[in-house]
Structure formats: C-alpha cells, structure tokens
Amino acid sequence: MSNRTGNPLIHQKRMRAEKRFRRYGQCALGLAVLILLVLLASLTARGYQGFMQTEIKLTVTFDTASLGVEAGQDASNLSPSSYQQLAKTTLKNLFPDVTERSDQKDLTSLISSDSGAQLKELLDKNPSLLTQTKDVWVIASGKADLFFKGGISEKTTESDRVLNDRQLFWLKMLESKGSVRTVFNTTFFTQGDSRVAEQAGFLGAMMGSALTLISCLLVVFPLGVMTAVYLEEFARKGRWVDLIEVNINNLAAVPSIVFGLLGLAVYINVLGMPRSAAIVGGMTLALMILPVIIITTRVALASIPGSIRQAARALGATPVQVVWHHVLPLAMPGVMTGTILGMARAIGETAPLLMIGMVAFVVDLPTGFTSPVSVMPVQIYLWAGTPEAGYAEKTAAGILVLLMLLLAMNALAIFLRKRFEVRW
Amino acid sequence: MSKISAQNINVFYGAKQALFDVSIEVPANSVTAFIGPSGCGKSTFLRCMNRMNDTIEGCRVDGRIVIDDIDINSSEQDVVQLRSWVGMVFQKPNPFPKSIYDNVAYGPRIHHMASTKSDMDAIVEQSLKKAGLFDEVKDRLLESGTSLSGGQQQRLCIARTIAVNPEIILMDEPCSALDPIATARIEELISDLRENFTIVIVTHSMQQAARVSSQTCFFHLGKVIESGTTSQLFTSPTHQQTQDYITGRYG
C-alpha cells in the first residue's frame, strides 16, 4: 500500500524552507526600497532649498545723480556696475552708522553682485522709473541665502563661518524689518551656469542635454533599427552573423569612457568637429547606446510570431514589404521602449562627454547644435566640485531635476508599451 | 489536362532529405487531398507549390513543378507574382493584427488591384462573401481581425487569400485548430470554392479527405505511396501501407 500521509517531518521542513526563502526575498526587496527612499529623501531635503531663493528689499531711488548720469543722457548706456553702485549705496543708506570702509564692504557683500543687472533690467523695461523711488527685491548673496536657509549657525566660532557677527546682525535687522523674503528660484530655470552661486542656473545644462539627446537620437535610431532589421530579417544566419552578434553584445558592456576616447579620436581629431558641441556629444553617446538599441530592437523583432511573416509572404508581399508593413510596426512598441531606455542611459552619462571636452564652464545658453554646451550630469559634476557653499544645494537640485526627467522617460516607456501593445 | 504537374521532386533540409522523387498531377477545379502520418512530407510538398520553402534556410528543392505550362522553379519566375495566383491558408489562423477590412484589403493593395476606394470596398465585400463571412462581420469591418473566433479567423484568412484572385489555393491542415462545428463550415466552404479554384488540402483527418476531396494522395516517409480518386483510394487501395493507414492500423 502506498504511503498517503507522508513523513510529517519532511513536510514541515519543506514548508519552513519555503517560508524562509520568501523571507529572504522580502528582506532584499525591503532593503532596496529603503535605500531608494533614503536617497530620495536626502536629495529632496537638500534640493528643495536649491529651488528657493532669498531676496532682500531695497528702496531704490533711480535719480540721475546717484547713477552718475548727466541730465539728458540716456540711462540705458550705463554699465551694470553703475547700477551695482546704486544698489550698494541704497543698502549702505539703510545702515547709516556703518562708516568703516571694511564694514561697508562686508555689508554690501550681502546682496548679490549681480543686483546691478537686476536694476538695469527694471529701468530698461520702464524708463519712466528714472527720478522715481521704488521698492526692489534684489537677490541676496549666496552667503546670506545660506544663513536664512539655516546653513550657518551663530554658535560656530566667528572665524569659522563665512559671515561675521556684524553681518549676521545686519541680516537679522533686515529680517525683523520685513525686508527679507524667500521665493521660488526662477533663476535656476532661466539662466546658464555662473561663477556666483546665487546666479547659477540649470537651464543651460537642460538645453544642452536636450540638444545632445536630439542629435544622439537622430543618429542612433535609424542606424540601430536598420542594423537590427537587417540582422534579424535579412541576413543569412551563419558564422558571420554570430560573430557580429557576439561583438555587439560585447560592445554593450564596454565602459562608457572608452566610447568617449573613440569620439575624441574620430570626431574631433580626424573629422575636426568642434569640442564641447552638442552634436559631437550626441554622436559620442550614439556610439555608446547603439548596441543597446540594436539588441532591444532585435528582441522586439524576434518576438513577432513567424506566422505573420508567412501570412504576408504567402499573399505575395516582398521581404521588404513584410518588414515595413507588418513586422516593424508590430515591433515598434518594443523598439520605442528600448530607445527611450537607451536615451535615459545617455542622458545620465558623464564619462564619455568629459573626454570630448564637454566639461567646460559655459555661461551662455546654447544657440545650436554646434555651440559649446554643458549637459546636466556634467553640470552637476562641476557644481559638486565647487567648494563655495551655495553650490551644494544647486547640485542636489540639479540631481533632482535629472531624476525627475529620468522618471518621466521611464514612465513614457511604460506608457508606450502598454498603449501600443498588440495582443494576438 | 492537369493544372499542376510535379515531376521527381526531391527536397532537402540541409543534409536531410524530406521528399523522394515525388510526382503528382493535380486536376483543375477540384479538391486534392494529401494524407499521411506526421512528418511524411505532405506539408513540405504543399509548400513547394508556392515556393514558401524558399524562406526556410538550408532548404533545397530539386525537380520540376509545372503549373499551366509555367515552370515555377525556373529562375525567371517571380516568386512574388507566383504567390499572387497560388494562395495559401495555414494550419493556425493567422490574421494580421489589423482590422478585418485591412486584412482582406492587404493583398489587393500590394498588388495594386484596386484604383479607387469603392473598387477596394467591392473586392473586400466579394471576398468576405465568398468566404461565407460577410454576414457575420459586415457591421464591424473595422474591428481587429484577431477579435474573431477561431473558425471566423480561418474564414477571414481564406477571404484574404481569395481577395488577390488566385487560381490555386493551398491549404495546410486548415481545420486542425478548429472545433467540429467550425470545421464543418470550412469544409462546406471548400466544397463551394471548388467551382472557381483548384484546391490542394493537407489533412490529418481521413474523414475530412473523404468528405471534401475528389483526388487523394497518400504520403509516407517522404514518398507518394498511392494516389488516385478519393473513392477508389478509400475503398480499394492497391498498396498494403495505404490499406493499413486508412483502416487506422498506424499513423
């Protein structure tokens, strides 16, 4: 007679082993989620400050005398430094008891060295302001900004902090008079990089990344998809295709900096293309993600059932028609998913771009594919290496923007796959 | 005179020979059935007649197949053109994941058979009617072809084949994935289509061969053992192997 109950000990052991295995999985998952949450939380805590900016209110009188304009002369011809002088004078007038030259210097260092440009812009927009008095919120200097964001503690010894006791006193005075406010940092999204922390913006890098990705996509998409279509649908399977396939798979695992060297050697040294340009960056990244696109496209093509190809062939479709009318459109969701994930990898890539000189300090917003640009990860890298205090929060804010974009791209990939997926 | 005449066909998949000196005559406007156990080469032979074997790597076909005095294996024969007059229906219904209309219109479109939209509409309607599907789908021509039931999908595939106006329709076990009711409808359809088309059907079911065909060829291990009219082959086979197969002793 067969044993119907089995050995209860063996049964229990099996159940325990199964439970244990499940626990391990849950632990691993929990740890991964925890690390992710810690990363996001710390970045958000830092980066959030980068999106805010402190401003100081100055009651500016735009009179000709203090600007040093002769009567009848056009104020728009003045250099920003005259305006900077005006801003400084206005601030000094708020604290008439500060007479020492070095103290005055400490005082005026509390507003951004770019405040003059802000005033000039106001006056250029509205010339009738000349001879009038107006409340203007000028951007606080990076140090003052840091203080209001809690980055500087009064308890620290005076010599160890970037602001001395008198500067802190003035700032608190201004705050108690209601002359300090915190606003959304529009500069961050409207300006390029700057040597002055409070003036440094991310837009230049964002545009640079966009231009680089566009050039990358334009090169890599047709090249990658055509290669995959040829290998998968037309090439005669054999030793050569196997060899090429192995090489493509290997290329996908090559460290990205090697592609940077290739880009430097070919595009810049041989073809003489400009350094630091979006188009060169894009083409270098294209080299890097070409294998990824080829592999994902081949997988997408291979997943289309052969019966579709046979049906089209049997109706008298040529091999090219079979691909263009049936196989490629059906594979498109997979191809696009792969492309977007490849792009997501390209957008976060730094190393190969450093090799082609895309590590320059670029203040101007890019004007085209050949103008020198910075890209987001490189900008973050540059900021992270700057010792000045104000850049730390910019770094975190930049990382947040990059992460948001990556998240959006991945979401788009999932959406496209779900939306255009064809079920049989 | 026969529509299709195959002489000494040998087919190799790489080093393996699948067909040995197969010679068959298929008369016009009739149904010819190929029967035989699995792996006997009947599907391979069917695929020789519209050169679908060309798409299989390492496959080589020797011999002459003449359809209406045209040697289809000659180098001058355009394969694409050949397949427009030798249509094929597959074992598993394989409609394109497009609308019912586009499924039928695809063939005529790539062969430029209709110049206007109304011409195309007429071709689609005629083809669906001939396949006995029109009444069931006339209100949902824009729905996906894959949303139909298995039997309807197979009739859609037949309509798609008819739409390019072939002379010969090859059917590779067209009912093996269908239930008995859908099978009966397809068999009825085959009987109707015989008026206008020469049909060659591969089937596993001897009953089906007996019901729909007028000629039957029995394949075994890559060779044609016996061929003749269906009634003769089923009632008085001349070979012992045929006798054994149709009485269900093996296969």
Task: Describe the protein.
- The complex is a heterodimer of chains A (424) and B (251).
- Chain A has 424 residues and is mainly α.
- Chain A folds into two domains: 49-185, no CATH class; 203-420, Orthogonal Bundle (MetI-like fold).
- Chain A has helices at 8-50, 64-67, 80-94, 101-108, 115-125, 142-148, 165-176, 187-190, 203-234, 239-251, 256-270, 278-302, 306-314, 319-347, 351-355, 376-384, 391-420; strands at 52-61, 133-139, 180-184.
- Chain A has a three-stranded antiparallel sheet.
- The two termini of chain A are 49 Å apart.
- The relative contact order of chain A is 0.11.
- The model of chain A has no long low-confidence stretch (mean pLDDT 87).
- Chain B has 251 residues and is an alpha/beta fold.
- Chain B has a single domain (2-246), classed as Rossmann fold (3-Layer(aba) Sandwich).
- Helix content of chain B is 36%, strand content 27%.
- Chain B is built from ten helices and ten strands.
- In chain B, α3 runs parallel beside α6 (150-163), α4 (117-130) packs across α6 and α6 packs parallel to α7 (180-193).
- The longest helix of chain B has 14 residues, at 117-130.
- The two termini of chain B are 33 Å apart.
- Chain A binds chain B through residues 236-237, 305, 307-318, 321, 325-326, 330, 422-424, and chain B through 50, 52, 55, 57, 80-84, 87-88, 90, 92, 94-97, 106-107, 110-111, 146, 157, 160-161, 164.
